[in-house]
Write a structure and sequence with these properties.
Helix content: 25-40%
Number of helices: 9
Largest sheet: 4 strands, parallel
Number of strands: 4
Structural class: alpha/beta
Bound molecules: iron/sulfur cluster
CATH superfamily of the largest domain: Diphthamide synthesis DPH1/DPH2 domain 1
Number of domains: 2
Amino acid sequence: MTEKKDPQCAMCGINVMEKICFFESGRGPASCPTLGFEDLIQEARKEYEKPEVREFARLASVQEGECYLDRDRQPFVIHCSKTRIQEICEFGHKIGAKKLGLVFCVGLAQEARIAHEIFAAQGFEVASVLCKVGRVPKEDALGVKDGEKIFIGTDESACNPIVQAKVLNRVKTELNVLLGLCVGHDSLFFKYADAYTTVLAVKDRVTGHNPLAALYTSHMYHMYLKQPGF
Ligand code: SF4
């Protein structure tokens, strides 16, 4: 078997109107996964044949389309209309979810309350679980050293994304919404949650939870990000 090149879509220099992933007549570079991973494309198509997966994916696509205005206008010009929280509410209703799970970081407790209120106003039951649930000490449970804690010299509870997931699994949420969990804690939540999870916002302590701000300014004020090892 020949070794596949790692896909490099993020570095693909082909114009959108000429990409093979958009048009049958298009093209892709040597690393193109549309051209080099045909077996996986077929495998994924089989997954979409499962009724539950197919319906979920179909509704995600329908929701995606509905986030643009005036799609019947020619020529079509992109005009977006929906905030992320509106999109989540609409998608939750589309998939028939009655109960949402909200997992959040203590640092975004105010935002979590507002999100909860909005979800409730839109007719959902909401089960929410804070990151420190369970009050598990960082030292005991995880072997974190005192100098590795945020508040050195204190008893510090670890974030507990596995419990967050397990509590929501037990109360049978139908769609989970992640709000501001730390990098890695979010990964564990995704791994242990039974229901599908979507993201309202990710945490970025410096940019007001807008991590792309650092990318937008990486040509100047965040240029150090491109220095190896910072
Ligand atoms: S799938 Fe191929 S053509 Fe499309 S972005 Fe990736 S490398 Fe480019």
